[in-house]
Amino acid sequence: DTEVTQTPKHLVMGMTNKKSLKCEQHMGHRAMYWYKQKAKKPPELMFVYSYEKLSINESVPSRFSPECPNSSLLNLHLHALQPEDSALYLCASSEIAGGGNEQFFGPGTRLTVL
Amino acid sequence: AQSVAQPEDQVNVAEGNPLTVKCTYSVSGNPYLFWYVQYPNRGLQFLLKYITGDNLVKGSYGFEAEFNKSQTSFHLKKPSALVSDSALYFCAVRDYGGYQKVTFGTGTKLQVIP
Questions:
Q1: Is A100's CB within 8 Å of B49's CB?
Q2: What is the C-alpha to C-alpha distance for residues A42 and B87, in angstroms, rounded to an integer?
Q3: Which of A61, A73, B21, B82 is the most exposed place for a label (fewest CB within 10 A)?
Q4: Count of CB atoms within 10 A of residue A31's CB?
Q5: Torsion angle defined by CA atoms of residues A10, B105, A2 and B32, in that order, rounded to the nearest 10 degrees
């Protein structure tokens, strides 16, 4: 299985809601990533998990809270988001973080904050 | 610090003609270089990478890229373009120094005209 899956595909939420994005991979990868992508822009790194530990937080606001329950799962908990947080949220994984390891991306969750 | 530049926002090419998408990079040490493609409303898909060795790297779907250390370039090429190659292409770099973050270029939209 060489696929990264993400749920839901689309999410619409109000600024007071709490929601979660989920990501799963079964490739035995030990690094997982969250990216935010605006239309026609490159992905912006948010978080990196390496061996289930948070290793990089790119100064992301606390209204985004990542969680890595095990080596196959990655969650992104959302609370009190702003309309400018509307974007495509991409999850990715790689064998390990760093080096020449390419990343495998999921299809993304299209988030709209009203 | 690492950076990557894609000087063309859009490249137009006729179907059947060769295509080139340009990428230049800057790293303090040796680079790991990657090309990804993104179709509309999808995640990024890995095409090819350069780690070390042969300067000409072959990847998926008939794409190849040439690493040129003196010109700090890693241009993506294909001998004969297909309409289905129309997509957004991202070049990415990671410094050999070991930092886990990959830096993406701004992307080049490839339009293959029938």
A1: yes
A2: 13
A3: A61
A4: 22
A5: -160
Q: Which residue spans within A1-114 are E strands per DSSP?
A: 4-7, 10-13, 18-25, 31-37, 44-50, 53-57, 64-70, 73-79, 87-94, 104-105, 109-113
pLDDT tens-digit map of A88-97: 999 999 998 8
Amino acid at B37: V
CB < 8 Å from A in window 53-72 of B:
none
Does the distance separating the beta carbons of B88 and A40 come in below 8 Å?
yes
The reply to whether residue A100 touches residue B51, judged by beta carbons under 8 angstroms, is: yes
Class of residue B29 by CB neighbours under 10 A (exposed 0-12, middle 13-18, buried 19+): exposed
Neighbours of B41 (CB within 10 A): 10
Segment B55-112, tens digit of pLDDT: 999 999 999 999 999 999 999 999 999 999 999 999 999 987 656 789 999 999 999 9
